[in-house]
Amino acid sequence: MMAERSAAIRALGDGFHAGFLARGATAFETSILQPAGTLLDLYGEDIRARAYTTADPLRGEQMLRPDFTVPVVQAHIAAASGPMRYAYRGEVFRRQEQDAERPTEYLQVGYERIGDDDMPEQAEAEVFLALAEQLAPYDLQAEMGDIGLLMAAVDGLPTTPRRRAALRRHVWRPTRFRALLERFAGAVPAPASRGALLTALQSTPPDVLMAQAGPALGLRRPAEVRARVAALQEDAETPPLEPGLLTLLDEVLKVRAAPAEALAQLQLVSRELPAIATAVDRLEARLSAFDAVGLDLSTMIFEGAYGRTLMEYYDGLVFGFSVPGRDDLPMVATGGRYDALTARLGRAVPAVGGVIRPSVLQELLP
């Protein structure tokens, strides 16, 4: 039975892969073992909770392939390629520390479009359509969002660059993001220990504090300690955000409607939150591009908070396909724009892509 199921999943994956190749994509393959250093630089130590690691005496720390996007981008940059489409299929591996029923290995089939500087919305529409057409027989629910809206709102906050950077880091961690936002607005007090420390530091120059502190202990260098003291002092002296800004951010995040209605709601919010105006205009252009390729937007759902817990490296359009009424199943497909990731890997180029999990669809077959 297990062999039959694996063969069925593989056959589904082969069909999707062939469909992507028929669109002019170049077949891409990469090693199952990937250098851990690159992934750790991108995602930090958090990735260890969801990736399998091993040590190689010559190549150093390695990880079983957690996805294909990073090696695809690295190969594209190394080849100094112009606009390209890529298709791939293969196993990816994810550790599971809480749910023993979730698979630790599954087939992933993907389609990526990289380097289209002059037509970003059209590229997004094509990638979405490439997945939607292949998934049409399965009666799935399509949803989308835009991480760029929240990023733009954060970038426009009248606060320090340090605070804005902290919020950007935690866009994909909603609980932590909300806690920071409320603290920066003065809605919740700082922890007692932090408050006492800030009071002690507030009016004392870092060099004076260093002189009063006695002999240095620990591994931090004096320059690092001074920088941290200066950062804490700046934070203590920064005025709180106006409560109305939190309300406007909430208005962005709570949008959930058909795309046309969601756009109208966001246009209203942008009148009071002009920082998101450009992102809203881009959303309008994106929906026009989707409509131009024949996608039925009325059947989709746009959600302002969509993608914040599932798609950590996306920074613009995010989308997914799920099985209606089956919350027990993972997403069948996910995708989005990840321009910022390419910059961190060495060359800033526009990039958008998506992946399908054939094993989820196989659960629906008789």
Q: Can you describe what's shown?
A:
The chain is an alpha+beta fold and about 375 residues long. The protein has helices spanning about 1-20, 35-45, 70-80, 120-135, 145-155, 160-170, 175-185, 190-200, 205-210, 220-235, 245-255, 260-270, 275-290, 340-345, 360; strands at about 25, 35, 55, 60-65, 85-95, 105-115, 140-145, 255, 300-305, 315-320, 335, 350-355. Strand 3 (about 55) and strand 4 (about 60-65) form a beta hairpin.
List the helices and strands and how they pair.
Layout: H1 2-22, E1 26-27, E2 33-35, H2 36-43, E3 53-56, E4 60-64, H3 69-78, E5 84-93, E6 105-114, H4 120-135, E7 141-146, H5 147-155, H6 161-169, H7 174-184, H8 192-201, H9 206-212, H10 222-237, H11 243-253, E8 256-257, H12 259-272, H13 277-292, E9 301-303, E10 317-322, E11 333-337, H14 339-344, E12 351-356, H15 358-362
Parallel strand pairs: 1-5, 7-9
Antiparallel strand pairs: 2-4, 3-4, 5-6, 6-12, 7-10, 8-9, 10-11, 11-12
Helix pairs in contact: 4-13, 6-7, 12-13
